[in-house]
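Practice set, problem 2.
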Amino acid sequence: MSNNQQGKDKERTVIITGSAGYIGKKLIQAVLASTSASVIGIDKMENDCIAPRLRTIRSDLSLPEGETIIHEMGDRLHDAAIIHLSGLFVKDVALSWQISPIEYERDNLITTQRLVNAVLQSGYRPALFVFSSTACVYDGAKIQPTPVEIAYPIAAYGESKLMAEAELKKLVGWVRSVVVLRLSRILGIGDADVLPQDIVSDFIEKMALADVANVSCLIGSGSEVRPYIHIEDVINIFLSLLKNWDQEGFIIRNVTSVNPIRVEQIGNIVGENLTKAGLLQNKLHLDIRSRVKTRVPILYPQPYQEFQPISDSSEDVVRQAARQYTILLKKLVDDSICPNLLTAVERARKPVLSL
């Protein structure tokens, strides 16, 4: 890090909401390791991170107490960077349809409204406000790749995020730069030794169950197409915004890999990794039901060169994640902590409901 960058960081506070979540915990570690900034982490869940220059606050930003917390920061808000990750997100697509729209509105929209109001009423002007939105705002779009101008969510999660984006426009003129990042689905290990809940780990669990019963693994139609990004790429993008961003105003960008991937290919990649690692006792057979209809549409947001992740494609992201997860699970089996793949998955997995 240059002396100029160090001097700039020493005067800056980085405020991260949703700091106990999947992205948040990893981002805190990265900011502390690569900058000299002080970090304030806010989350309604307990955060076990302890480090110099880090203060963690347990508070629900969807409640009035959240605004009070922001007001109490006082002049630390001046020239601060706020990274707003807080919100409700369920990685299991099937489960996400069961969440009440009211829950999405509370955790994604109301949380953002209160945060925006608190910043405007504080009397201090942050330099940067970054909002973690979602590519699900494009679920109903007909144009692919989809530019940021065409947002058409068809589910409560995407709708709540799009409404939260609209709230951020109130900050224009008060905050130097307001950046909305519409993230594609994220893969990769956030917490060490914790298996995230995502499509790759779902496939691993399905294959483990099929292996125990010695039956074929059903993966549906396999025809769904979506882009994925690795969590390391996401963290690097947030860091680049903190260090180098100089654009002003209200900016929306897609954060995605260049090429999407079919679900059938994800299943094949996961199966290859598990088989090569010797974690399956029986030969794997994938049962692809070509006539099974899916509620998940094709999704392909238009990539932006300035935010292009280091991963070359969604296939590359899936392969990275599959290798990571396989290594984690194989260690549990090889160290005799777990007798087989299925119990290793049960031990390592932790549901992630908050970003």
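Problem 2, part (b): a different protein.
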Amino acid sequence: MIDYRELVRLGAHFGHIKRRLHPKMNCYIWGCRNNVHLFDVSKTARQVETAAKFLESVAAQQKTILWVGTKKPARDAVFAIADKLKMPYVNHRWIGGTLSNFSQVRKSVTKLLHYEDILEKSANSSHYTKKELNSFSKLVDRLKNNIGGIKDLAWPIGAIVMVDALKEGAALREAVTVGIPVVSLVDTNTDPSLVNYVIPINDDSARVITFVMDYLSESVVKGQKKAKELVIKKKEDQEVKRAKIKVEGGFKKPAVRFSKDNRKAAPKAKVVQKKVVAPKVSTEKKVVAPKVPTEKKVVAPKVPTEKKVVAPKVSTEKKVVAPKASTEKKVVAPKASTEKKKDVTKKVAATAPEKKESKK
């Protein structure tokens, strides 16, 4: 358990000013002095202890732990602990997609490795000019600051330890989306709802950060030792099993694998011809039962039925008959002769002047 006096001596109980308080941090606050909130040191020590146990269990499962701290007071502490434990870290800038889109971040890691290889080989024989090598070295320095700690990042990631959840908001959100548990130092001005293991403490003091991170690293070392012991036990158990098998009667012969040299032709399968057996003819005579005569049915003669005489229907409507055209020949008057017409014209002409005179 952490000594409370040590925490107070380092100044771990100091928070921020009253007006910067986040309401969800009220449960970890002891009181207020000179307009500054003070943490309850007993709760801080308890939370550090639970976080240390969790990290120990993660390390015992041989999972990687990512250490994140990009603010200036935390950079050196994070780098020292990650280098000691040989684990990945981020202490300069969090690159978006490090957890949720690691395949793209991996491309820049390969780029870093490629230029590092060029600079190493340039010492013996360089195919590049001094200007090109100088630009390569600048690019390598820039990539090391951003990605140098994630170069050996291996999945699955068991947990993320970060300093100041407010500063590392992007990393916190990515960890939540991916489903990685987070252990974080949280001050009075931060929302602790997304953090799985909250450590309420002063996250602006370099001494406090190094003290807490060292304590957590010790628990991780314990977990790594347990993991090594488990591996050794497994190996011993396997050796004991092998020894028992040898005493009982040796190993079972493994199945023979045909190589190109000792490959043999598989034996041909024997074709068994089935004998066709003729069906047996039975010599016994079949006894046929005599047929029983069946009586003929007497059918009664059909009685002729009288046909009904139907009277023809008389139509009541009178038919209108059109009058037949007469077949008699028309009598044509004989034409007068031309001589008679001439005499008549003469008579008319003789009488015409007489009429005119009478009128006068």
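Answer key, part (b): The beta strands are 14-17, 29-33, 36-39, 64-68, 89-90, 157-163, 182-186, 197-200. DSSP finds eight helices and eight strands in the chain.
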